[in-house]
Design a protein that fits this description.
mainly alpha, elongated, 76 residues
Length: 76
């Protein structure tokens, strides 16, 4: 994930340096927990405690995963 994070940060820096005016707000959330074995989940914490920080029309994610029971219940 660190490579993708660096690419996104570099892109935002270049947008700013070149005066690129985005047509909407761009938010970047670099969260923790991917390698924690489930002990922490930064994305879940943001969703539960600070949803206004991540509310968006759409999101880009470098990956993701998890299992559901097929009926919307998160298993892992």
């Amino acid at each position: 994930m660190k490579v993708v994070d660096a690419i996104w940060i570099d892109t935002l820096i270049r947008y700013k340096a070149h005066g690129y005016p985005p047509t909407r707000t761009i938010k970047l959330a670099l969260i923790c927990g991917k390698e924690s074995g489930g002990r922490m989940n930064g994305a879940q914490w943001l969703a539960e405690h600070k949803p206004e920080l991540i509310t968006a029309a759409f999101a880009l994610n470098e990956g993701g995963g998890g299992d559901t029971d097929g009926h919307g219940k998160l298993l892992s």
